[in-house]
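Forwarding the complex inputs:
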Amino acid sequence: MNTIVLKEVLSPSIKKYVIDNPDIAAKAEAGQFVILRIHEKGERIPLTIADFNRENGTVTIIFQEVGNTTKRLGKLEVGDKILDFVGPLGVPTTPPEGKNYVCIGGGVGIAPIYPEAKALHKQGKQVKGILGGRSKEVLFYEEEMGKVCDELHIATDDGSVGHKGFVTDILKELITDDSVQIDGVIAVGPLPMMKAVCDITKEFNIPTTVSLNSLMVDGTGMCGGCRVTIGNEVKFACIDGPSFDGLKVDFDEQMRRLRMYREEEQKVTGCQCGGEC
Amino acid sequence: MPNQDPDKRITNFDEVALGYDKEAATLEAKRCLQCKNPLCVQGCPVGIDIPEFIKEIASEDFEGALAKLKEKNSLPAICGRVCPQEDQCEKLCIVGKKNEPVGIGRLERFVADYHKNSVVKKASLGEKKVAVVGSGPAGLACASELLKRGYQVTIFEAFHKPGGVLMYGIPEFRLPKNIVEQEINQLVEMGAEIKTNVVIGQTITVIELLERGYEAVFIGSGAGLPYFLNIPGENLNGVYSANEFLTRANLMKAYLYPKWETPLRVGDNVAVVGAGNVAMDAARTAKRLGAKKVSIVYRRSEKEMPARQEEVLHAREEGIEMNLLTNPVSIEGNDGGWVNGLKCIKMELGEPDDSGRRRPKPIKGSEYMLEVDTVIMAIGQGPNPIIPRSTKELTISKRGNIEVDSKTGQTSIEGVFAGGDVVTGAATVIQAMGAGKKCAESIDKYIKNN
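Prediction (whole assembly, two chains):
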């Protein structure tokens, strides 16, 4: 159990592991996450479930090497075991009602958007996908997303592939295209991207679901470190989310809370980005 | 009982209370009057035969003393340390009417520690399997009792280490983790199977446990949902629940960061809101982690503090300040969103409320600012909601607790029992153990009748 059965390098800093854990595979749904720890002195970190295969009893995770733990995680190879692998945690995403959806994945957020698009596609919904990232090198899953989306758009900051610009440029076009009414948007990616998406969907009053990657320890409601403000209410991302109504999320607060341990982490990794690289 | 010197102990996480040696224990044991109708026993939630185990100590038969203890209590090294004896056995001790009561807890601890490397016999187990959900005090006590009665026991724990609040909540300096590990290892030696990293209600549901061939299920999932005050500023950076602060420090060993990789920001000036044992633990942990000034903020007076007297005394000795009759109004932050103050209002005591304690009332216009960079909320916990939410068949109270038959501990589902904080709300280690043990007896009866 918890053995890495497949490893793929999706981009220089983004890796995909398929991990053997039949109990989690049997229960996982789109939107849920796992918590893992890779050695005795290690930190517990949450990662969204990128895919699962109930028959093979496997769970897929995709992660970007940003902090100490993900960098170490990236060094593991096929056959290695993840010391602790817990889940599925959180509640599955309930997409807004409707027929026509836009699913947006930014950066490593492409990983969790894939099961969402796949689930909608399976239910016979119309799905338009938008993938975005800094450049061609950091994009992945174009083929997989292509299979579950009726149309797939790509945006890169540097224009190395697809539209030169942001995913929100494409989103705006899709919304203002009068031929199809969009019933719901699901967006997963960096907080500034999800915020920008919600700024647009709010304007057009389109229900939007986002997924938050808050800091947490146990993932079972016990620490409360993953507090998020949704409208006027404080929720715990681990047991009430991690998917929330994007039009109600206080993104500025979330961005600030993600910087909680920036100084401590810099001491270890030497990185200056504050968890945003 | 000797303690580590306060000035020294605030620089380490070693145990504060140093324990009796053989001579001191024997001497203390001889103070026991060996009452014919011992009141102390009535104060013990698990009914330890207190005079008997003390008699064995007095005659220096420490083996016999341990055997007597273990008849009723499977975790004596833990209970000897964290039970509120002053409100239980020792409160009723006749010697205590005129002098210091017999140090029952200290003697219990001595006997357990004296035997810490003793080998436990594997229990002879039958065919029937029982699932225990949660490896805190309730689960461990239930498991131990079930093993003694010959059941195969599987304990499911959500964290990567068993022990529940004994591991994540209570700090090393009050309850060394190797003691918890030893007591748990003894259960494993007896034949318990422990599955960590399994969240019942998420990974496997309670109903699925029954379907997988467990004859009965005991739920002891604890009070793992921290309360906040719902005042402005609670989501600022630098505000923790005591659960989070203590879990990072205890279970994840953030005090050894970066060697252990979980970070914790302590700050220079820390306010801990609340005055229970958890609040004292958080305050004393913050001090040890290097905070210059640590204050307790509590809306009632010293008399109403729910913490054990000994804990309050230890906290004071360690330089923890007490801001009593003080209630937080809001948490203030700087432009970067970090805590820089706790706005408080002075309180006075009015008429007694439902709890029998005088109700605190704010004094108009008495607001003032406490300059702090960290605020830790230690105002209590609710029952963890994962099992109630995922088990529709369970009857749950308005407050989210699992409802049980008070005599048997059975829930609204046949074969499923529950006890400890998830039933009663946050209480003590020994009360949870008492409930776990009682449920084990009911489970035994239930299985035999089926």
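Chain B has a mean pLDDT of 92.
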